[in-house]
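PROTOCOL LOG
Step 1. Enter all chains and additional molecules of the complex.
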Amino acid sequence: MNEMNEVRKPPVATTGIIGWLRINLFFNWTNSLITLFVIYCLYHFIPWILDWTIFSADFKYNFLGEQITNQEMCSRNLDPENGGACWAVIYVRFYQFIYGFYPKVEVWRVNVAYVMLALALLPLLYANLPYRKYFLYFTYIFPVIAYFLLNGGFGFAEVSTNKWGGLLVTLVLGCTGIALAFPIGIMLALGRRSKLPVISMMCTLFIEFIRGVPLITLLFFGMVMLPLFLPEGIDMDGLVRVLVAVTLFQSAYMAEVIRGGLQAIPPGQYEAAKSLGMSYWRMNLLIILPQAIRISIPPIVNTSIGLFKDTTLVIIVGILDLLGIGRGTLADTNWLGLSYEIYFFVSLVFFIFTFGMSRYSLYLEKKLKTGINMGAD
Amino acid sequence: MSEESIISLKNVNKWFGDFHVLQDVNLEVKKKERIVVCGPSGSGKSTMIRCINRLEEHQEGSIVVDGIELTGNLKNIDNVRKEVGMVFQQFNLFPHLSVKENITLAPIWVKKLPKAEAEELAMRQLEIVKIPEQANKYPGQLSGGQQQRVAIARSLAMNPNIMLFDEPTSALDPEMIKEVLDVMVDLANGGMTMIVVTHEMGFAKTVADRMVFMDEGKIVEEASPDKFFNNPESDRTKLFLSQILHQ
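Step 2. Run joint prediction.
Step 3. Record the structure below.
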């Protein structure tokens, strides 16, 4: 009896840190050699990158203690042997990177909009947030508030969108594009699968046409051709025209992603919903779409990240987003030659946002998976 | 006879492409009657009962359910579906919703029942199918027999006059078949009008008022269970019964 009760433990060498190391890093000779080679590379690379970006870098002053106002004063230009990155360019041009050419007196409005954006995202990020329902209401009305706040109206002085730039434009394009394309994409996906041939054909045509054309072409289309379709006297704002193009582009992709999810739903789900007397819309809203969207989370986030980065293409039609401001700064004779710093900074900002989205998708997948065994009988 | 019929199929024809799946099917079902439909696979039994709540469209003939004729009229279809509950071979529970939510969904959204009332109703239905303790689990966490009982409870929550069963035990492990059949026997004893497509001949003998045997899209024989099992008329029925009872 005693022997039966004794719990046999797994061999020491297969568990814990040592076990992990053995299995993952030193499993056999080739494996160990690769591990050692990677460690060697990291050993050289990490100190170098830390030195360049932080320890030897200039942030506001150069090694002589002077405040940097142009590229000639950067330590790495004064003393090519020793200087690191010259972040002073970011410091000096920070305002433009974040707000573009938004008037300084009104810039508090952008700041308020940034804070509100963070608040609007809060209920989406934390399912257990207290008073989440009220936060969600705020999320729904946030776009309207943000529009009047940024653009003007209701007593705010108007700030024309050609003064917007930098991160502001990137976020406006990215967030609006993603948020609007989602519902439009759902409608297009349902439309394409509709039994009514006219609706299905129109949706298919729209999707195939938009998807078959590069985003740059759509941007030009928005800039040059959209005004031709508008009645005379109505002038459409440049940023709005680009937004229309970006949203159309993204909704076509979103539609196909969601259609993929819809196709994974077994026909029995439709039949069960119908046999309970549900109408087409109830069936889709309550039964089909929640499951289809759940399945499609990874590709939805994938195309959203793609769009967020693709917004940099607006530089082609003369709108200065984050990257556009960076390129503008590079063209300035004061900051000529600091492309490493500027591209590094722009990449870092984009990475922070896209990495956030990617983690959010993982979190959603984990949260929605609990207790649900999709497709099991 | 047809005046008291709650379901009436007259000369119903249906084709899948060129395949004539239902050929001049006539069937009258009275209120509280229990019909068991059997026949070899591909004989059109499932298609026939799926026509009764318009999951399939018939192309010729007429189907009248509780005084409502099934045509292209969407309103009529919705009304019929509110009257008719259906249980499927593959259960078709909604995997993203808990057992309780599966049951309350239609009462809340289709019948506009207040949420608290719908939940009470759901618990009552779960008592009837004897699994109230599973209310907060998800379908994926239940056994096949439990899932099918939830599916029955989900249908019953809409308070239907008629229940259709499309091979409800065919996807179940043998030891789970009984728990589902027990629930169905209770339902039959409670006076529900039922059309059951099944190969469970023991069940048929206990509850059926009438047996319907189909082959190649036609109703070959209609008889009381006693006559059907002991003294069938057609040779096709005899052959089918000999195969199914002596396996």
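Step 4. Note key features.
Chain B touches chain A through 33 residues (CB under 8 Å).
The CA atoms of residues 5 and 30 of chain B lie 4 Å apart.
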